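Entry: LacI family DNA-binding transcriptional regulator
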Amino acid sequence: MANGRPTIYDVAKAAGVSKSLVSLVLRGAGGVSAASREAVQRAIRDLDYRPSRAAAALAAGRTRLVGVLIDDYANPWFVDLLRGLDEVLSPDGYRLSVVDTATAAGVEDPVEGLLSMRADGIIVARDVPHVLLGDAAPPFVIAGTRADVPDGVDAVGNDDVLGARLATEYLLGLGHREIGHLSVVGGAGQTRRESFLAAMGDAGALARATAYRGPATERAGYDGSLALLREHPGVTAIFAANDVMAIGALGAARELGRDVPGDLSIVGYDNTALAQTRLIDLTTVDDDSVGVGREAGKLLRARLAGEDPVDVRRTLEPSLVVRGTTAPPRLKPSPRDCTPPAKPRHKAAVSPVGCTLAGKRPEASAGNVDTRGNVHMIGQSLSKGGPMPLVRIDHSDARTNPREIATAIHDAIVEVYGIPERDRFQVITARPAATIIAEDAGLGFDRTDPVVIQIFTQRGRTDEAKQRLYAEIAARLEAVGVAGEDVFIGYVENGPQDWSFGFGRAQYLTGELAVPAPASEKE
């Protein structure tokens, strides 16, 4: 025995047969008598002999080895990819040999290492090495999105354009209008970045995108988020190109004292096991990396079975997984802008709603509903203290259509006042109406209307314009099932020198311009 380990010659000697007959038994070949087969198997057990896989592979012309090229051991996306590959290839006797090309750089050529091991095939989860494009290279399949896939090469990826748009439009839908993005140069990172910028451009929102040369690591996400938030403090959300960078963004937010999701929403990409932990609970895009591994394994298995190349391209559809790191942006009025005048004429004139008008707040696309059922439609002029109106709608908990109510008010004001598309304003739905009126409105009598609308503006309007507005609001609300007797309107001309409230123009939307009678005087 060489080095104390039994060899095939030792088995043959113990069984009293030739080496070639032992080889036949090991391969399960026919033409061996039952007695000889039993003698060989007994010798194998007695000697605790383990055949050399390498030798068997050389004899058979196949190694049953599949190389996998990745570029970051620390990225859990590759763990899910490997799981999918193993599910498909392991039952056929294939073993995976994983090489991190970033770690191996400068030590040896990782691809040449796999080729010297005579790997039957290779899964490429990074940019394609040039050596694999030669005629002598083994079959390979690309796993993951790549900008340029060579002709004749099978590839499985995710629809990263759709995935990035899902994440971006979700943040826009929550009301975020200044959103940062962390990505890397090339590959899926570039695709996701371009899709993010396109979605932000379509929404007319302010994009803050940064791309890094190098792996998409936690450190890159941390450093990038620190720089991004310090340079652009108005950013209320960050979309990272993967979960690892998003976790770095969480660390940066914590260091800067930004509450997540209260002050800053964060979305990742990949839906890795880290994102699913209760501690992190990350909102992310699920790109089905296990599925990518399965499909890539199937394609490579088909190539190894001798099927002709057909240049297969498979794209899996992503989905958004909403967890605990995202929420609508907080309305943050500026203390300077919210300073009331020296002699306000009414208590309601210094209400939080009035001060919010001049305060700085994130912008939101029209018609978005947050997790509390509040509808936000906001315009660019408000944060500058411009003349556009602010509308506050308070509705009872019984209302089931806040979006329709807010949209009706929004469209009525746009129609009557001729506000340009670029100068949108805000419609806010808030607490139940009875609570709001009792605490904030200062009307002098109790009201219990299911819907209360308060219109704040820094520009005076004529009585005729107000009457036309009331009539337009009445018609549009009626169209969405809101009866006139269920609505109360307060019109507030909140100019810099005029803090008087225009509740003399309040009405029930019945066409009468008179202050409604107190609740106690109603029939």
